[in-house]
Amino acid sequence: MRVKSNDSLVLLVLLLIGAIFGSLIGAALGDTVPILNFGKSIGVDPFVVDLNIIVITFGFKLSLNIAGIIGIVIAFFVYKKL
Q1: What are phi and psi of 71, to 5 degrees?
Q2: DSSP labels, 31-47
Q3: Containing domain of residue 58, as a range?
Q4: Count of domains in the chain?
Q5: Using an 8 Å Cβ cutoff, are 73 and 17 in contact?
Q6: Which SS3 state, helix, strand or coil, does residue 51 take?
Q7: For the segment 21-51, what is each residue's pLDDT rounded down to a tens digit?
Q8: Which DSSP string corresponds to 11-30?
């Protein structure tokens, strides 16, 4: 199967939606099923570059929990079915 230019964009959007919905479900059900809310954060703390004319802040943080990972896996299977 040839990969079209839109296929990778569709995959990225589906994975992002799966991670968001999975994390929301994990946060909502975190009290009843605590394992879904377990997760880790990785990233770079924000740092500031002050150029006296403009101030730029850089930073990146990725927080995933178990439910978010399950959402990503489900989104990948949905993509494979398309």
Answers
A1: -65, -40
A2: TTSGGGG-EEEEEEEEE
A3: 5-81
A4: 1
A5: no
A6: coil
A7: 998 998 888 889 888 888 888 898 899 999 9
A8: HHHHHHHHHHHHHHHHHHST
Enter the pTM of the model. Answer: 0.74
The two structure tokens encoding residue 54? 């403009």
At 63-81, the pLDDT tens digits run: 888 999 999 999 999 998 8
State which amino acid sits at residue 10: V
**Cβ neighbours of residue 62 under 8 Å, at least 6 residues apart?**
41, 42, 43
- Which tokens hold the place of 63? 């927080």
Q: Which two tokens stand for residue 9?
A: 């964009």
List, in sequence order, every residue forming a beta bridge with 55; answer none if it has no partner: 50
